[in-house]
Specification:
Distance between the termini: 35 Å
Number of strands: 7
Mean pLDDT: 86
Helix content: 25-40%
CATH superfamily: Vaccinia Virus protein VP39
Order of helices and strands: HHEEHEEHEHHHEHHE
Structural class: alpha/beta
CATH class: Alpha Beta
Largest sheet: 7 strands, mixed
Strand order of the largest sheet: 3-2-1-4-5-7-6
Number of domains: 1
CATH architecture: 3-Layer(aba) Sandwich
Length: about 250
C-alpha cells in the first residue's frame, strides 16, 4: 500500500503542483500566506518544529520563527521533497518519507498539519502519531477545507453537487480522499486524545477556485479579513490548534 500511495502522491505532484499552467491555485496560495502569518504570530517562541508536507511551499516559505533549533519537513513526494530542499536550503531538514513511517528522535513543541488530514489514508493514525510526537506542552496546528462552506452549500443549492460531502472533480485532482465538517474533525481529534484549544474559520468564499479568480483580488483579501465575523461552519477552511488532552474542555 505504501508504494502505491507514494506513486499516487508523485502523480499529483507532477500533474498539479509542478505545473504553473494550472489556473485555479490563486485562492489557495493567498490562504496559505495568511496562514503562515497566523502561525508566526501565534507561535513565535517555538523551538522544535515538525511540518507534515511541503506542497508548493506557500506556507513553509513565508514564515520565520526566530527561536527554532530544529525544523523538520516530512514529504512523501520525491519531487516536492527536492523542491523543498532547493527553496529552503539549510533552513530545514527535509525527509522524504510517508508520515506513517516517521520515527522522530525529539519531541516537538509545534507541529503543522495544514491541509493534510483530507489526503492521508488513515487520519486517526496520523493524529495518534501527532499525539506521540508532541511535547507535553506542544501544540499542533490543523487546517482542513470545510465541507459546509458557503461555496459548497451554494453548489448543492444550484444542483452542481448532490450534497456537501461529495468529492468534486477538483478534490480528486488534488488528492483529497475525504471532506471534513467541524463535527467530524472534532470527533477524530477527540479519539486521538487531543484537546482543542483554539478554533476558527479562515476565509469566506462563495465560488469555486476557478470562478473566484475572476473576482478582483481585493475581494478575496477582504473576505479573508472578515471571515472571523461569520459562523465557523460557513468558512472555506477550518483552523484548529490542539494539544495533548489533560482533562481540558473540548470546544
Amino acid at each position: 500500500m505504501s508504494e502505491s500511495f507514494r506513486n499516487k502522491i508523485d502523480s499529483i505532484a507532477s500533474n498539479y503542483h509542478a505545473l504553473d499552467s494550472v489556473g485555479d491555485k490563486e485562492f489557495d496560495q493567498l490562504f496559505h500566506r495568511v496562514l503562515a502569518q497566523k502561525i508566526t504570530s501565534n507561535h513565535i517562541d517555538s523551538t522544535q518544529l515538525l511540518e507534515l508536507g511541503y506542497g508548493e511551499g506557500t506556507v513553509s516559505n513565508d514564515f520565520e520563527l526566530p527561536n527554532l533549533k530544529t525544523r523538520i519537513i516530512l514529504e512523501g513526494s520525491s519531487y516536492l521533497a527536492q523542491q523543498a530542499r532547493l527553496k529552503l536550503g539549510q533552513k530545514a531538514e527535509v525527509i522524504e518519507i510517508l508520515f506513517e513511517n516517521y520515527k522522530p528522535q525529539v519531541k516537538f513543541d509545534l507541529i503543522l498539519a495544514t491541509n493534510v488530514l483530507e489526503h492521508v489514508i488513515n487520519p486517526l493514525e496520523i493524529l495518534n502519531k501527532i499525539y506521540d510526537w508532541l511535547s507535553d506542552t506542544g501544540k499542533c496546528v490543523i487546517t482542513v477545507p470545510n465541507s459546509e462552506s458557503v461555496h459548497r452549500r451554494l453548489a448543492v443549492a444550484i444542483g452542481l453537487q448532490e450534497n456537501t460531502k461529495v468529492l468534486s472533480d477538483r478534490d480528486r485532482v488534488v488528492g483529497h480522499l475525504r471532506v471534513y465538517d467541524l463535527a467530524t474533525l472534532t470527533e477524530e481529534i477527540r479519539r486521538a486524545n487531543l484537546a482543542i484549544v483554539k478554533q476558527e474559520g479562515l476565509d469566506i468564499k462563495f465560488l469555486n477556485n476557478a470562478l473566484q479568480k475572476l473576482l478582483p483580488a481585493e475581494i478575496s483579501i477582504g473576505l479573508q479579513k472578515i471571515a472571523g465575523e461569520f459562523p465557523i461552519d460557513l468558512a472555506a477552511n477550518l483552523y484548529l490548534e490542539v494539544e495533548k488532552c489533560n482533562l481540558q474542555k473540548n470546544f
